[in-house]
Amino acid sequence: MRVDLSRLTFHALCVLEDEARRATREGRLRPSAAVRLALGYLYAISRDDRGVDPAHASRTYWEYLTREGDVDTRTSAGFGRWQMMNSCLNAIATAAGMPRDHKYEAARSQLLDGREREEMSD
């Protein structure tokens, strides 16, 4: 499976741009949950200087976030994939300094929403 890292990075940068504009309009100083999650992703793929293979980190993040493969939680493989996806998102959120609260859950749902809408339209 070929992972389109540029597409995922582009989406992370779009989140940052949208949130920066919104924060400027609203006069906010603290970054939103979406910004911290996007920054966490970008941080995860830039960790090659710390002994982490960025291609592996991105591929893992992409596969579980986009639900490539079996994600039926009624099967053991699907349930394992669902657990790994949540672990990846939680690790990225932790790296971005985001507590697991309702704002984090909303940001995670926002990231997953696009894929679910695509699947429903197929």
Automatic annotation (TrEMBL):
<protein>
    <submittedName>
        <fullName>Uncharacterized protein</fullName>
    </submittedName>
</protein>
